[in-house]
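Ex. 9. Protein: Rhodanese domain-containing protein.
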Amino acid sequence: MRPLSLDEYKRYGRQMIQSEWGLPGQLKLKRATVAVVGAGGLGCPVLQYLAGAGVGTIRIVDHDEVDVSNLHRQVLHTTDRVGRNKAESAAMAIEALNPHVKAVSIPKAVHNNNAIELLSGIDILIDCTDRPETRYLLSDTAVRLDIPLVSGAAIASSGQWAVYGGVMNGKRRACYRCMWPAVIGDGGGRCSDVGVWGPVTGMVGCGMAGEAIKEILGHGDGYMHMMRLGTPLRSIKLRSQRPTCSCAGGEAPEIRVGECSTKTTTAVERVSPKELHAIQDSVTIVDTRPPTEFGICALESSHNVPLADILAHPDEMTRRYPGQIVFVCRQGNDSLLAAEKVQEAGGTVKDLRGGLVAWSRDVDPEFPVY
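Predicted structure tokens for Rhodanese domain-containing protein:
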């Protein structure tokens, strides 16, 4: 009995003829079970190429829904699936691409209490999320399950990816926590705040899929790959396992995965979109977004002063705008930071709660949301 169907021989022929692949390599892929957490900008190309290559079982874990703002980079989803769960949408795309692959959609968020349950029984874990806390949680989960973790990130025009943990050439690789022992800042921001080139997520995702396939075939390496549009790809050798890390027997601090919050040290009065609309003609509205975003859409008569300039010279704001200032931004986070700083410098300030997204929802449905 043939190990593959006639359709599979023809479907995978162009990769099986590679010397490092062959029929044995294809059978390794067919028997493999991979979990991909996040079916977004990185997850879509990862899933597409793993399914195309013939990975036997792919678990897709994502609690989010497809939004029209995703479609410029999340290429497995379609306009008619906006509002549908991303894991289910991606599973539909995979099944249409390759009927020999078993796609298992898990429309749940991964957190401390369910990570082991959702991810047990897999050969490789692929992290396609965009939150630092989740990256550490998935790394710690991979260490506990004793499997390799493929992790990547893409923001603006840059990206990077690597394989962490597991065994390579008889030695244990450094895990994600070995490289970065603690969460630092916000990890460079999120696509919804900073923006991202669609092709960059595709390039990073393809690289991640390639690393996962190499691991399954037994050709993994110990390099981190970094890219930026317009510059050559860089690859650097990862450090060895850190002796004090949890993956080497040390104790890992618990990473709680929950909702982000903005902390302030000074109480700033926040106004709703309807409240701002009522006083719009009697206050100075300062938009803290970068000039590029301000050029996309802005409130009438608002002034653009980027957040970095405000934080560097808050006293200048009180001289330039001596009356009541209402700070606005896209979602109400940067504007709150600006309002706090200017208030500390003696300014009279308010902040738009929920930002321009809330303004579009509650006051002007024709105001663009991007």
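Check your answer against this statement. Residues 332 and 355 are 4 Å apart (CA to CA).
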